[in-house]
Predict the 3D structure of the following.
Amino acid sequence: MAVVTLAEVKTLKQITVSTYDTLITTLIPIVQNEINDICHNYFLSSSVEYEADTIAFLDTDPDTITDSAELFVDSNFADGMEIYVSGSINNDGYYTVDTAAAGTLTLASANTLIAEAAGETITINRVIWPQALKLVSANMIWQQVSRGQNPGFKSERLGDYSYTLDTGSGSGGFAGYSAESIAGLRPYIKVVYK
């Protein structure tokens, strides 16, 4: 499961029509990646973490992650859990576990993998999204939807009528998002030392 679902965005933004469903669904992983980048945080739990060079990725139907050491269940992976993979050649990212067994994590059908043999040291963590991020991410998604409706100008004047768009830039915002959205991310920003 992502940071927020289509149904949650629609509930939080009080959207009752299906007009924007495809766009919102497309924007969810984009905004999720932007949250990761802005916060320098992947929301990984160290309580469920496994690192090994015995992990392989299979492009099957459904796709699976296998461990020849058979330690997934011993490492507390469970059905329905969202995970983050790192250290692979082609498969770093977020996935949802449909079923967990000792040597196999079968992924939800929407997840896709590229076949990759064991050998690299792979780390798999459980992901825990804070509940407060649902509203922040819904707001960020809606800002993207609204920006798509923006005809490309900040203001216009026609006689006595004028119209100004608040794009968030220049008012404490960042990366095109409003200051309010960025403020909602502040508790989750991790400092990165280079």
